[in-house]
Task: structure prediction
Amino acid sequence: MKNLIGRWLAPPQQAEPEVLAQAVSGKVVLVTGASFGIGEALARRLGAAGARVLLAARSLEELQSLAALIRQRGGEAHCFQLDLREAEQIDRVASSILEQFGGVDILVHNAGKSIRRSLLKALDRPHDFERCAHVNYLGPVRLQLALLPKMIERRGGQIVNVSSVGVRMPAVAHWAAYLASKSAFDHWLGAAVPELRPYGIACTSVYLGLVHTRMSAPTKEYASMPGLSADQAACVLCRALIRRPRSLQPWWLGPVHLLSPMLERPLEWLQWLWFSR
Ligand SMILES: NC(=O)c1ccc[n+]([C@@H]2O[C@H](COP(=O)([O-])OP(=O)(O)OC[C@H]3O[C@@H](n4cnc5c(N)ncnc54)[C@H](OP(=O)(O)O)[C@@H]3O)[C@@H](O)[C@H]2O)c1
Result:
């Protein structure tokens, strides 16, 4: 039953390796957050499709074993240890990418930090909000700014934002740090689109629902809920690279987004009832 509902809410996407290869073969693709979950699964697929994959995250060991696996299978992969909370590291990684590869063709902003916590339990935790802001918004913006001039000069490329369905839905209690920072980057990219399109740079926002990864695991209720596997989510991202649409989202998110202004107050009220029990 759970699988059936999952397939209905987010029908599995196919990304034929040959079609993906046509889109990415020989291209320099930087994937942030490639050490685990969706980023790791995506990097494997990109490596197999002949992309020159640049893997970035904090966990160097995981990146190195992934790079070794991609090379073993005949692909090309390079590792960059990167903490998106550290401005200096971002600048250093961007400089060495520019120096070694002359820039990137595709940048997949996949790294992410999620926190689910009641506001009342976060009163002495301003760092929750700061960390999410750095990993999900400020770090990606800094990295993108450093790599953008080359994309503009070459008049091409793609920027992919791995976002969440929550960004397009009314606010939900406990998710403020995560969704505010994801929304900020989504908005930033939306504002960049009109200026970047004349240079042939495509911007794609991918709004994912639940994906069963290390990120969603701490929320116990999610374990029994329908969702994608990391590899299924990577397939969705592959389709974003193949088709280069402005956005990709589950079929039901469009109507929910349209109805959001009407749903906001009733949802606030329902949540208020729930929390005052
Ligand atoms: N899982 C879901 O249900 C879901 C739903 C919607 C959207 N998403 C989005 O999908 C993306 C991937 O998430 P996931 O589910 O694959 O989570 P994950 O398995 O926890 O992977 C997150 C990745 O981000 C990296 N990362 C975290 N903090 C970082 C930092 N300070 N600097 C650089 N990299 C950092 C992690 O690597 P290190 O720890 O090695 O740095 C890891 O590779 C995220 O943007 C997330 O918001 C996920």
In short: Residues 2-275 form a domain with the Rossmann fold fold (CATH 3.40.50.720). The radius of gyration is 19 Å. The mean pLDDT is 95.
